[in-house]
Amino acid sequence: MVWFALLLLSFAAVGQPDTSQQRLELRRAVALDPHNTTARQSLAAALLDAGQIPEAIEQFEIVRKARPGDSRVRGELGLAYLENGNPAKAIEEFRYYLNANPKDAAGYYHLGIALGQSGKLPAALSEFRRSAALDPNFGPAQESIGTTLRRQGDNAGALGAFRQAVRLMPQNPIALCDLGMALKETGDIGGAIANLRQAVKLKPDYERAKYGLGIALRMNGQTSEAASEMREIRRLHQSRTEFAESKKLIIEGMELLKKQQWQDARDRFQQSVDLTPGLPSSYYYLGKAEDKLGEREKAIAAYLKALQLKPDYAEAHMSLGIVYARQQETPEALKELREAVLSDPDLADAHYNLALMLAGAGKSDEALREVSDAISLDPNNADFQLLAGNLYAAENRTARAVVAYTEAIRQRPDYAAAHYNLGLALLKMGDNASAQTHFDTAHRLDPSISK
Predict the structure, then answer these.
(1) 157: which residues sit within 8 A by CB, 6+ positions away?
(2) Residue 11 clears pLDDT 50, i.e. is over it
(3) Is residue 384 part of a domain?
(4) Which of 221, 239, 257 is the endpoint of a domain?
(5) What is the tally of structural domains in the chain?
(6) Residues 6+ apart with CB under 8 A from 325
(7) pLDDT per residue as tens digits for the range 338-395
(8) What is the four-CA torsion angle of 173, 175, 181, 184, rounded to 10 degrees?
(9) 3, 56, 89, 286: which has the highest count of C-beta atoms within 10 A?
């Protein structure tokens, strides 16, 4: 079966740094066979790994309803709810999972995290200890035992757990920081400095570790080094403050774009660029505003700067491709749109715009593949369905065109172009009466369309 081949192809991508191609292949498998819960579960897991949590939950829920007794699905759904900030739902799913898998140390650990997020510290501690008992080498359980004991005021117990966590996870900056801070509280300043230095080495922008290191150095009489750490903390604070202000300017600019206040939006984005010249999104949105103002060359320059800072910025590649397309620079447009799809195969609009360009270049087979990918990513987009219908119609696959146009109309009943094109397809199939109905509807919705 085709979906099974796509599923195998997706598994081949497991373990690679970028799993976007895996997600795309799984989407294709699900689109070909929506009832294939194996592919859908794998898609949900891939989405969870990629941080696309709401969609992961949606896919897991579909699988759960189809296979209500599958404990693995319930456990994965619990992880998704935990990531989504819904510990109550996570607890429910983890308990179901653990009832079927009572020896899973990681399961009890995640249940403990959910209970802790719900403010149930004694219950959380119990689950962390159960996890550690099942797997004494599971470092996250020891780290969480230490954190929970510290919150309960048991500093001696917390120190012991943090020592165990660092023994098991010597390259974990959080565990090292927690141990260093606990040692500082006991007066072991030398031990605190050693662990906190290592935490900062592993994670240079770890503000809590830097602050603890600065205090420990000061307590040890190393005032010059302590002052250096405190200056670095102030620099981090300043950088984060500027970043937050820049993001605020971008959000304000985006709202102005929605209101079609192009010049004011451009001013906000330029302020963002001036404040954080190393932030790619500042240039990307500046490019969008310049494009709206008709300043195409300035828009291109802004997009190119965004891509210089972030070469895999899919939205910037796509927007640059669209500008080139308007200027009828087809090779450049195709290059950028292909880069957009490669940079983020989950970006539906990139597939759609690439399909439009391919269709215009006479590459209908490739165009159909891209618009099919766009539909699998966003099945409720009427424009995608219309383009698919047009491509099917151009290949004389009239029945498939009718299906696509009908779906476009279902999604957007006032879509005049979809009604008109459906009329043409029905006319070709000999259904003159239905065709005339859609021609009339198209003309009513848009009188410029000929009957």
Answers:
(1) 145, 146, 149
(2) no
(3) yes
(4) 221
(5) 2
(6) 333, 337, 353, 356, 357
(7) 999 999 998 999 999 999 999 999 999 999 999 999 999 898 999 999 999 999 999 9
(8) -100
(9) 286
DSSP 161-205: HHHHHHHH-TT-HHHHHHHHHHHHHHT-HHHHHHHHHHHHHH-TT
Q: Is 17 exposed, middle or buried (0-12, 13-18, 19+ CB in 10 A)?
A: exposed
Question: Could you write out the DSSP letters of every residue in 109-127?
Answer: HHHHHHHHHTT-HHHHHHH
Residue 348 contacts by C-beta under 8 Å, 6 or more apart in sequence? 373, 374, 377, 378, 381, 384
CA dihedral 67, 69, 72, 76 (to 10 degrees): 70
Residue 239 has which token pair?
Answer: 């950088």
Residue pLDDT, tens place only, 112-160: 999 999 999 999 999 999 999 999 999 999 999 999 999 999 999 999 9
Q: What is the dihedral of CA 86, 88, 91, 95, to 10 degrees?
A: -140
CA dist 132 → 47, 103, 126, 142, 143 (Å): 29, 11, 10, 7, 10
| Whole-number percent of the chain with pLDDT over 70 | 95
User: In CATH, what number is assigned to the domain containing residue 182?
Assistant: 1.25.40.10
- Residue finishing a domain among 221, 243, 264: 221
> In 380-415, where does DSSP find H-type helix?
382-394, 398-411
| Cut 0.85: pTM above it | no
Whether residue 408 lies inside any domain: the answer is yes
Rounded-to-integer distance, Cα 376 and Cα 370, Å: 10
Coil, helix or strand at residue 231:
helix
* Count of H-run helices and E-run strands, the chain: 25, 0
Query: How far is Cα 341 from Cα 350, in angstroms, rounded to an integer?
Result: 6
Print the domain residue range for 449.
Answer: 380-451
pLDDT tens-digit map of 350-361? 999 999 999 999
Q: Is residue 106 part of a domain?
A: no
Question: Which residue from 12, 5, 33, 18 is spatially nearest to 376, judged by alpha carbons?
Answer: 33
